[in-house]
Structure formats: structure tokens, C-alpha cells
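pasting Mycothiol system anti-sigma-R factor for the record, 106 residues
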Amino acid sequence: MSCGNAHETDCSEVLNHLYEYLDDEMSADACTKFKEHFDECHPCLEKYGLEVAVKKLVKRCCGSDDVPSDLRSKVMMRIELVRRGEAVPEQDALSAELPTTEAPSA
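structre below
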């Protein structure tokens, strides 16, 4: 996505690293660049606001659930594949992790 205007920091760079910014996983210099970008780019600011809202909703609804570390690793691996533009395996990584419930034998 690009708003069509020239910025010191390109829209695609901002959007590709938006979650790092949201999760406070960036250097102070990078955060400053992103803040400046949001000040001058309304489409990216809207996307940022939407992602903040989604993150708050997920935290409120799922914040107390523990996530198995192997599931987190698989999800993060898929996110990284998508970021790099690589093919993501068709198998749903989440379905492999869901516990199955079996009826007890009589």
C-alpha cells in the first residue's frame, strides 16, 4: 500500500514493520521515523489505528490464555514467510495444534 506521496520512510516499510512498532520492538530512531510518517500519512495512520484496536480486542478476549510455545513458533514462522512473500504451506498450522477431545471408553 502506498498513499502516492513521497515520504522519507516508505509506506511499505512502515506497514511491513507495523507490529514491531506496536510491540515496542524497535530502536528509538526507528520509532521516531514511524511517528513522523504517521504524522504525514493518513492511510498509514488509519492502518495503525486499526491494528491498535485489533490488538486491544485480542488482549481483552484472549489475554489470559496461555499459548503453547510450539504453536507460537509455528505462527511466527508463517508470519515471517508471508512478510518475505514466500509460499505458505496449505496445511493449517493451527489445526495441527488444536487438542482433540475423545469420549471416554465405557
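Confidence is low (pLDDT under 50) at residues 96-106.
Residues 11-65 form one domain.
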